[in-house]
Amino acid sequence: MITVQNLYHSYNKDDRYAVKNVSFEVQKGEIFGFLGPSGAGKSTTQGILTGLLQLQQGEVSVAGYDVKRSSPEMFNKIGMSFEQSNVYSKLTAKENLQFYRKLFDVETREPKELLKLVGLEGKGDIQAGEFSKGMKHRLTFARSMLNNPELWFLDEPTTGLDPAIAAEIKDIIKRDNKKGVTVFLTTHNMFIAEELCDRVAFIIDGEIKLIDSPRNLKLQYGEKLVEVEYIENGKSVREKFSTVLDKDKKRLQDIIGNYEIQTMHTKEATLEEIFIKVTGRGLV
Amino acid sequence: MKLWHSFIKELKLAFRGFYIYIEIFMAVLLLVILLFAVPEKFVSKQSEYIHLNLPQMVKESFLQRMEDNDLDGKSELIEIKNDGEVIKVQFFESDTRKIYLVDNKEDVIKLADKKQQLGAIIKLDDSYNLAYEYYLQGYESQRLKNLFSIIHVENSDILQTTLDEQDVRPLSTSYEQLTDRQNILPSVLTFNGSLLGLFLIAGYIFLDKKEGVIKAYAVSAASVWQYLLSKVGVLMLTGIISSLIVVLPIMGLQPNYWALILFLLTTVFLSSTLGLLVASFYEDFLQSFGSIFLILMAMVIPNIAYFIPGWNPFWVKILPSYPMLEGFKEILLKNGDITYVLWLSFGFLAAGIILFLISNKRYKKTLTV
Ligand SMILES: Nc1ncnc2c1ncn2[C@@H]1O[C@H](COP(=O)(O)OP(=O)(O)O)[C@@H](O)[C@H]1O
Ligand SMILES: [Mg+2]
User: How confident is the model at residue B174 (pLDDT cuts 50, 70, 90)?
Assistant: First the structure.
């Protein structure tokens, strides 16, 4: 669905690249995530894929179109939700959607149904200018679904939303993906990446450091830990053991055989801990 | 179709904003000013203050001639208040002039000075020929002064024959054919009709830039040019409406309205594509203010040339507002040169298309994420 080879982009057309030698592929039907801290180059990459930014260097093909020669008709297959909501504040929510659907040549969804889907039911006749930030964001999100896109670009889809609404948005993304929609999303939130993505790319300073599924990453990098609390000489002791290192495994067996165990948990490394391990930097 | 829907949407936005109401309000205000504050003719007749220093017989034949030319065939005695003193004069009024016969030379000079009109003393010189002394204001052109100095040198019969034999072809007939009030219209149409587009479209673009909506347009199956052109369309429509508000009541059905609408369409097209281009270089109105102000000021210069017929250097004619003024004048005239208007329209359209293509490129290039 998306093929990117050796992509570079510099806003000032000099050698300070916002995106450096980025290559990846997105398969049809998967949710592919760009995970990285703010300023890493996620939105820039997405901007090039959607034709908002001019392709400077590299090969990019999206939904079967070469981005260099992109035509408006390509956008019949694409939906895009922006990090900063951008709707006409002088138009009502419904008018915003009614107008936008006229810009496509394919069958479009009913604005009313979409408003309901994103929790803006009954708010259709209010001018978007009167909406809260979160409501505008939801309207922008709803707009990206109007043309039943095959390929859906989501820039920070849940950032700044309250948890309940974020959960609904995540559900919508999962549901549409089940129906076959390919999703490319950017986020600096490890929970989103972990929960939604089939594969994630770790990106930092414009470079991709690694691409894999969250599960594989955990298997590979996140050594599992066991945290044990036991009684020794009348005192409660807490200790962590790796389930990989032989020394730790032996000691763990020893404790289980000889002491009274109070609690025992396995702990998984989070995606962020793995991110730090791989890139040396955190996600904020 | 997408263009049409965009146009309707832009129209909706325009009516929910306030720029459009400013435009309509300006048109109504200008109409009211033109109808109630501007006279049909600024100065109807030239006034002259004359003292006859002549022997009684010559004087009487002079007076007889003036009475023959007078509208009601006889003169009136009137009193003119000048700087607190009252001057008694004999008043004649012909088709073209108001003549005040003054008793003495000093009063002629005083009146010519205070009323800013022509003063003259007519007398006989040593060899009993008529001699003229003119009192001018000082700002008359050298040519007029030269004319005064030669006009009486020749025997006036010869001068008359020479004048009759001269073939005078008026270069500009329009000043006679439009009333003074109507003569202001080309200026109103150029600025409130056409050039306002430059200012307004920049306003609309900056509103949109603040909201980032053009990005959403760029990732739809419509093109950025449709977005831009739909805005231009709104300005064309409002330009026509605000122009008709002023033209219809003042000109009635005399002008060629098809030509007027065509000319408005093409001039608004040019000015609004220029506005698009300028706006593409800035993020908000404040940043762009300097450039827009400079352009509008440059466009005002031809307007000065328009009202001072003797002054129009070449460089003024290159500014687009110069041909705009000319074109509107031709349209308003009864027998205006419509072919000329068509050529101008064609030129504005061509220039507008070039600016539009450049703007379209720039807007696509300056999108952000
Ligand atoms: N319009 C712009 N002009 C110049 N630099 C920009 C622009 N947009 C983003 N950048 C820079 O490019 C880099 C990547 O930004 P971005 O792609 O927005 O990051 P992310 O989406 O990962 O937070 C940052 O250093 C940012 O400052
Ligand atoms: Mg971003």
Answer: very low
pLDDT at position B164: 62
CB under 8 Å to B67, separation ≥6 — which residues?
A: B73, B74, B75, B92
Choose the final residue of a domain: B155, B188, B218.
B155
Task: Compute, in angstroms, the gap from residue A9 CA to the centroid of ligand 1.
Answer: 10
Report, as ranges of residue numbers, the positions in chain A whose pLDDT lies below 50. none
Higher pLDDT, B95 or B360: B360
Buried b or exposed e, range A67-104, using 16+ CB within 10 angstroms: beebebebbbbbbbbbbbbbbbbbbbbbbbbbbbbbbb
Q: Which residues of A238-248 are buried (b: 16+ CB within 10 A; e: fewer)?
A: eeebeeeeeeb
Q: Chain B: residue nearest A106 by CA?
A: B221
State which of B122, B155, B188 marks the end of a domain: B155
B11 and B91 belong to one structural domain: no
ipTM: 0.84
Rounded to an integer, what distance in angstroms lies between the CA atom of residue A73 and that of residue A106?
Answer: 10
Q: Which of residues 136-175 of A touch B (CB under 8 A)?
A: 140, 143, 147, 155
For residue A64, give the nearest of A26, A102, A24, A107 by alpha carbon: A26
Is the Cβ of A230 closer than 8 Å to some Cβ of chain B? no
B139 is a domain residue: yes
Lowest mean pLDDT among A233-237, B41-45, B236-240: B41-45
| Structure-block tokens of residue A153 | 């670009």
Query: What residues of B are in contact with residue A75 (Cβ under 8 Å)?
Result: 219-221
Do residue B336 and residue B228 come from a single domain? yes
Whether the pLDDT of residue B175 is over 50: the answer is no
Beta bridge partners of A4: A24, A60
B202 and B301 together in one domain: yes
Express each pLDDT in B240-267 by its tens digit. Answer: 999 999 999 998 888 899 999 999 999 9
Residues facing A79 on adjacent strands? A152
B163 located within any domain: no
Residues B145 and B272 both lie in one domain: no
Residue A87 Cα, gap to closest chain B Cα (Å): 6
Q: Are residues B76 and B54 in the same domain?
A: yes
pLDDT at A151: 97
> How many domains is chain B built from?
2
CB contact under 8 A, B367 and A72: no
DSSP annotation of A105: S
- Same-domain pairing of B76 and B14: no
Q: What CA–CA distance (Å, rounded) separates B238 from B26? A: 12
Q: State whether B148 and B202 are in the same domain.
A: no
CA pair distance B341, B263, nearest whole angstrom: 7
Examine the domain organization and report whether B135 and B86 are in the same domain: yes
pLDDT-derived band of residue B157, with 50, 70 and 90 as boundaries? low
pLDDT of B293 over the 80 cut? yes
Domain range for B150: 46-155
Q: Check whether B6 has a pLDDT greater than 80.
A: yes
What is the β-pairing status of strands A235-242 and B76-82? unpaired
- A265 within 8 A of A226, measured Cβ to Cβ: yes
Instruction: Give counts: helices (H), strands (E), chain A.
Output: 9, 13
Is residue B160 a part of any domain in this protein? no
Average pLDDT over chain A reads 92
- CA-closest residue to ligand 1 atom 9: A44
Long-range contacts of B34-37 (CB under 8 A, 24+ apart): B34/B181, B34/B184, B34/B185, B34/B188, B34/B246, B34/B250, B35/B249, B35/B250
Would B188 be classed as within a structural domain? yes
